[in-house]
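Quick one: structure tokens for this chain, please?
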Amino acid sequence: MNLLSLYHNVDLLNRKTVLDLIEVNELAKVLDLGCSDGQFALRIAEKAKTLDIFGIEFLKEASQRAGDRGIGVLQADLNRALPLAAESFDVVHANQVIEHLSETDRFIKEVYRILKPGGYAIISTPNLASLHNIFSLILGKQPFTAHVSNEVIVGNSLDPKCGMHHASRGEVHLRIFTSVSLRELFRYHGFDVEQLIGVGYYPFPGPLASVLSRLDKTHSVYLTMKARKSAKMSQEQV
């Protein structure tokens, strides 16, 4: 199995992990941040058994494709305040999004603001402390997930994408988290972190990687977190 195939399989496993965290609620109003063409947003809605699904996407063409699939889509920059009412969503999802943002505090505050009391967010992002990133650093190479250029991927000859240009500025990784920093930052902004799951364990494939990531999420490929807006806290703030 080559590295790109391994990446694809871990990505699929991560999406399954996200879906496993979705609660069934036919009345839920769901928002997918960075929804791309909307395909995965529809899978989230299907898992929740709701038809009330919305998305925000920065790229015009992708947002149009999501709209063609029947999703209510806004084209907006997630680094800025979201044009959405406070406490208007039950579920907010962002998969492989937060690492591309410079305004991470504003993003988390906005997610908190638009969630209803008791609502939850599912956030998934690459892990800076993953085993393959640590191995790269030991060899004096750039971590796979930490980009140093807005134009080209450089610094790690082990990376199959090394030397490739970013298709857009939106693909550049700006803020890379460890399990500790991801948990602590969401707690700082008022969330109750209910689950933090490690997904994938490069370079190991398949079932072995699943076992290793469960035993040691600290060094997994992805971090997938479920964080809830406290209903009690929101009532006290009113």
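The two ends are 54 Å apart (CA to CA).
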